[in-house]
């Protein structure tokens, strides 16, 4: 059930692994250094899922309390080399196949808590073999920066470099795979071999390269394809349109999927969990919020960009943050003494966020107020306050349009007006639920979107058959805008 056919009983006993029959789960103990006391347990259940296995983890105590490494009691003070894995099962397989000291990280590829770093100081060489996909590779590079890249090597995912447990089951030579690990540190220039492997890795993992998809906003995923590290998203909308509410929900959607985030606005994000009429459930929901990898910057009033960037860099190092939400840019503007020109100050701040996103491989979502526009006009990319630098530096530009002054209440929609990843732009409608303070796709639009998708599929079939006059399928024809309303992204072009 767990794929442990080739893992021996001796290996399980050495790591003190047990099987709990009532829960149908493996039990992995977490000991204090030296094995003097039990710090916690992780229960791992397995469920068949097609040809693979889906694992379900339960931790005692809760996940946030874990600051230990599985396998630590077996490490000797004389050991100078160690292999880090993201799963206990891989740790077992590696140790059995190679005899090398191996440790499993408590939170897998999600986070490497700084509290664990002292346990790893004795090692002159650390090999990170975290998994067989693109996200594992990105996590390995991030953790290597924290551990000192000069002593780290990384096992690159690939057909011949699967997870350690799978490699053992396939009869591969795990020692040979470890010898092929690439050094994490290099000077300013990389070799063509490294670039070649980077590109191959992205082409082999197209879905993961596109980023994490939103579950509540499938149309946003359809246009942007996903939420990617190292990008800058600029978000704008009229005053009172619901920018803060939407951006909080947009961020929480990603956070519930494991994206570690920090936000400059803690009040509005937490307010999405409104329970005024169900206070008896507060502790239950508070526990769920507490388990989210979500953090907040406690700034009050205007802040300098240096202070904000320092805080963000600290969050990336300590909590492995991969998404920063700044709501809004203007709260830093008055503090900058660069110039009396607010436009120049904003350009400097946007440039600083762009550099941070690239250098830290962290996504930054930046809320910027629009210029003053006539109430009867829709916003465009040029409506973003300041010079064109914000829209030029941004990888994505999102505009929350509000047509209630023109077409009556409730006519809100989100416009993707820039998408550097693959160029797809378009709009889709949103409906605001005041009681829950959330946005959703209107029911009528859901039915209409399904019909449009079906129609587009039919058009695509005709086009592929070479029939004369067939119209090629285009993502913009499935934008989801309200009937008889032109797509503003097409009008702007």
Largest sheet: 9 strands, mixed
CATH class of the largest domain: Alpha Beta
Number of strands: 18
| Alpha carbon gap, first and last residue | 56 Å
Q: What is the CATH superfamily classification of the largest domain?
A: P-loop containing nucleotide triphosphate hydrolases
EC number: 5.6.2.3
Membrane topology: Peripheral membrane protein
Keywords: ATP-binding, DNA replication, Helicase, Hydrolase, Isomerase, Lipid-binding, Membrane, Mitochondrion, Mitochondrion inner membrane, Mitochondrion nucleoid, Nucleotide-binding, Transit peptide
Protein name: Twinkle mtDNA helicase
Topology:
Elements lengths: L8 H6 L3 E3 L4 E7 L6 E12 L2 E9 L20 E5 L2 H11 L3 E3 L20 E4 L5 H14 L4 E3 L9 H6 L4 H6 L2 E2 L8 H13 L1 H4 L8 H7 L7 E5 L6 H13 L5 E3 L2 H6 L10 H10 L2 E3 L8 H15 L3 E4 L3 H4 L8 H19 L2 E5 L21 H5 L2 E7 L1 H4 L4 E8 L6 E8 L4 E3 L2 H22 L23 H5 L1
Parallel strand pairs: 5-6, 5-7, 7-8, 10-14, 10-15, 11-12, 11-13, 13-14
Antiparallel strand pairs: 1-2, 2-3, 3-4, 8-9, 15-16, 16-17, 17-18
Helix pairs in contact: 12-14
Main location: mitochondrion
Keywords: ATP-binding, DNA replication, Helicase, Hydrolase, Isomerase, Lipid-binding, Membrane, Mitochondrion, Mitochondrion inner membrane, Mitochondrion nucleoid, Nucleotide-binding, Transit peptide
Membrane topology: Peripheral membrane protein
